[in-house]
Specification:
The structure holds two protein chains of two kinds.
Chain A (H helix, E strand, L loop, with lengths): L12 H4 L8 E2 L6 H10 L4 H16 L21 E2 L13 H9 L2 H8 L2 E6 L2 E7 L1 H5 L3 E3 L1 H4 L5 H7 L10 H9 L3 E6 L9 E6 L6 E2 L2 E6 L4 E9 L7 E3 L2 E6 L4 E9 L4 E4 L1 E6 L4 E8 L4 E4 L2 E4 L5 E10 L4 E10 L5 E10 L4 E10 L7 E10 L5 E10 L5 E10 L2 H8 L5 H12 L1 H4 L4 H16 L4
Parallel strand pairs in A: 3-7, 6-9, 7-10, 8-11, 9-12, 10-13, 11-14, 12-15, 13-16, 14-17, 15-18, 16-19, 17-20, 18-20, 19-21, 20-22, 21-23, 22-24, 23-25
Antiparallel strand pairs in A: 1-2, 3-4, 5-6
Helix pairs in contact in A: 2-3, 3-9, 10-11, 11-13
Chain B lengths: L1 E14 L2 E14 L3 E5 L6 H9 L4 E10 L2 E2 L5 H7 L1 E4 L11 H13 L5 H14 L17 H15 L3 E5 L7 H18 L2 E5 L13 E6 L2 E6 L2 H9 L2 H7 L1
Parallel strand pairs in B: 3-8, 3-9, 6-7, 7-8
Antiparallel strand pairs in B: 1-2, 1-4, 4-5, 9-10
Helix pairs in contact in B: 3-5, 5-6
The chains are: A alpha/beta, B alpha/beta.
């Protein structure tokens, strides 16, 4: 008979190493006002933040879990440890970071990337930043890149109070409320008027503790005419209990400013990734999202852009790869709230080995958004008969002269194309990997080189299974 | 010694879950460096033979042997057959978005040879062969066959042939849909392959234009899943003049 090549499940050993929990401070599992107050105290919150957390907890307790989307029954918040402080304070030199934590980031290639191609790096381990550094020339330009905790006590305290969870309010949904109550870590970035950063800033989030949650908050303000590329990476080792990630990203893009926000998310497959990201864009400004979702057991992720000023633009390029045991519900939402705004959403999804990938997308055009242009294109590729791919588009158009287009394509990997490549000596699994990489090509083109390489490696790993 | 020996090959395709036999016992022998032409009316099973020789999993070989280079390869997958030195130029080459032609060919060359190719040398070879085929060098960076015209697709097939230098190339209607100039260019490429590698050819064709500049050793006529006549190059001219009608009648 013909040789049969099995495409095995991913070997995640390059992400799966885990460190012992040692000497760290862990709060008890679960969620009560006492625990939330304790987090506040441990983190030395200003008074307004203490109150904010308790109010958010109240909202959390009043809200229901969303009735749509993948099941999160496997997630029991009473078993999640919401705050795990590593056994170190934030350092600005890698050499001062404790050995086991430094090792982790070495394996993930973070210090190397910093030396080569980044303007600044933040590294979060469980609930707190363990490393943060920006190049001197970058801080001399007036760029602020720091952890949110210290920023709340410094000269930007007012700016943070003015913006923190104003774009994503705790009553937005249950997990936004949870985030408001127990958030910890993340980054604060401020790029002053007219400043252009030619090389990116990057934050990397690593969740090491078993059964824990990570709730980092990213707040970025790009002032008028400024330009920033921010990269976010995430990973975690796999445990047999549920971990939770409920981060929140708030992006303020000023007049004629540009922000590019790139993410490669590769959480382990026991992770519930319930993440909220939102941007507001002023006149003539531009937000560009590049989003790769590879990991997690369940994801709910729909970065939203509010085009508030005339001529504001957004571009969303995303890819989702759902393998065995994964149910990834991803997409994008855009609100056109001003004239001459434009949005372009381009997503690809791949499902394999029984994985489920759903593209959920919403375009809202308000009465004020004369001449708005919105184009949505989504393509899905299923690699076998047991996988699933769905598209759920929503359009709410309240302006007659808006130009809105939607295009969706769902297909199976073509046996003929696989045979064609095999005809040239390429093995079945290589042929499939080449077709999938090609399918993802327009997304990898949007990523910085190192991340494009990482994404390609992830695809190769997903396609070929056990290596080493 | 013969390069390819097909003995009493029967082949079926899946048709609504039933197997339908298309080839009913085909015999063919090709020696190193020979050029064979396979002609026949539409639906005779010519392309099926090409696919079956190359191991398309949808074409099931029920019985018979395919001996290539001394080995029965009937159970081998397509990539193994390619590595053994077989090549099939597709009648309708497939499009693979996002996969640049040049990196595809480089991967293929590395797979077939089992060796890493040096980038500089590869680029030089590729450029040289593209010149033989009158291909704009810009095509090297374009996604495989995506947005290529019919003629460009066929040229890209012959480019792969030249880069991979197989022992046997099966060309399935490589000349169909091409204008006179493109046929001439493609022919030049095929000639180059013959000359360089002493490569053997099995050319499936309806027309004779592509054969004009090639020296044909044998001509086979296939009707209804069987080769019913084998002759020399003159058989091509005869078909050209009188068509297949006589052979269709004979086979009934």
């Amino acid at each position: 008979m013909k040789e049969k090549t099995y495409v095995e499940d991913i070997n995640r050993s390059m992400y799966d190493f885990r460190n012992e929990d040692k000497d760290n401070f862990k709060i008890a599992a679960g969620l009560t006002p006492e625990l939330v107050s304790q987090i506040s105290k441990e983190k030395n919150d200003p008074a307004w933040m203490q109150n904010f957390r308790l109010q958010a907890l109240q909202i959390y307790n009043q809200m229901e879990v969303p009735p749509w989307g993948p099941s999160i029954d496997g997630l029991d918040i009473d078993n999640i440890v919401t705050y795990v402080r590593p056994n170190t304070h934030m350092k600005t030199k890698w050499s001062e970071v404790p050995e086991d934590i430094k090792d982790t980031f070495e394996k993930l290639g973070i210090p190397q990337a910093e030396r080569k191609s980044l303007a600044g790096v933040g590294a979060q381990y469980d609930s707190e930043l363990v490393y943060h550094n920006v190049r001197d020339e970058v801080s001399q330009m007036g760029v602020v890149y720091t952890d949110l905790e210290s920023a709340m006590h410094g000269e930007y305290a007012d700016m943070i109070q003015k913006h923190f969870m104003k774009l994503v309010k705790p009553n937005d949904h249950k997990f936004a409320a949870l985030h408001g109550a127990v958030w910890s870590g993340g980054s604060f970035v401020y790029v002053p008027k007219g400043v252009h950063l030619d090389i990116p800033l990057q934050s990397y989030f690593r969740l090491n503790a078993k059964g824990a949650g990570q709730f980092e908050h990213t707040l970025i303000i790009v002032d008028e005419g400024a330009d920033l590329h921010f990269i976010e990476g995430c990973s975690a080792p796999k445990y047999n209990v549920a971990n939770l990630h409920a981060g929140c990203v708030e992006l303020y893009v000023g007049k004629n400013a540009r922000l590019r926000y790139s993410t490669i998310e590769n959480w382990s497959k026991n992770m519930y990734n319930l993440n909220t990201k939102r941007a507001v864009v002023e006149e003539g400004g531009r937000i560009e999202w590049v989003s790769g979702s590879f990991g997690s057991h369940v994801s709910y992720l729909y970065p939203m852009s509010i085009l508030k000023g005339r001529g504001a633009r957004m571009e969303f390029t995303g890819i989702t790869f759902a393998g065995a045991g994964q149910n990834l519900d991803t997409g994008s939402k855009v609100v056109h709230a001003a004239p001459d705004t434009s949005s372009f959403i381009n997503t690809k999804s791949i499902s394999k080995g029984g994985g489920i990938s759903t593209f959920r997308n919403a375009v809202v055009v308000s009465e004020k958004a004369k001449n708005a242009k919105a184009a949505v294109s989504c393509e899905s590729l299923m690699l076998d008969d047991i996988s699933r791919s769905d598209t759920v588009p929503a359009m709410d158009i309240r302006c007659a002269d808006a130009d809105v287009g939607h295009e969706a394509r769902i297909g199976r990997i073509s046996d003929d194309a696989v045979f064609y490549l095999m005809n040239r000596g390429i093995s079945e699994e290589d042929a499939k990997a080449m077709i999938v990489s090609g399918f993802a090509d327009n997304v990898s083109k949007e990523l910085p080189l190192e991340y494009a390489v990482e994404m390609n490696n992830l695809i190769q790993l997903e396609m070929k299974g056990s290596i080493g | 010694m013969s390069l390819l020996n097909v003995n009493n090959l029967t082949v079926s395709i899946e048709d609504d879950e039933n197997l339908k036999e298309i080839l009913h016992g085909v015999n063919i022998e090709i020696k190193k460096g020979e050029t064979h032409v396979l002609m026949g009316p539409n639906g005779a099973g010519k392309s099926t033979l090409g696919y079956a020789l190359m191991g398309n999993p949808r074409y099931v070989a029920n019985s018979g042997e395919i001996i290539f280079d001394g080995k029965n390869i009937i159970d081998e997958s397509a990539d193994k057959r390619a590595k053994a030195g077989m090549f099939l130029s597709f009648q309708n080459p497939l499009e693979v978005p996002g996969l640049p032609l040049s990196s595809f060919i480089r991967n293929a060359v590395e797979s077939v040879s089992g060796k890493r190719v040096k980038m500089m040398q590869f680029k030089k070879d590729l450029a040289k062969n593209m010149e033989v085929l009158n291909m704009d060098s810009e095509y090297a960076n374009r996604a495989l066959n995506v947005g290529f015209s019919g003629g460009e697709k066929k040229k890209a097939e012959i480019l792969q042939l030249l880069m991979l230098s197989p022992k046997l190339a099966i060309l399935d209607e490589t000349d169909s849909g091409l204008d006179v100039d493109a046929v001439r260019t493609v022919s030049a490429g095929i000639k180059e392959y013959q000359k360089k590698k002493d490569g053997a050819l099995l050319i499936i064709t309806h027309s004779t234009r592509i054969l004009e500049s090639l020296k044909v050793d044998y001509t086979h006529i296939m009707v209804d899943g069987k080769i019913i006549k084998t002759g020399d190059a003159s058989l091509v001219d005869e078909i050209n003049e009188h068509g297949f009608e006589k052979y269709i009648q004979e086979s009934k």
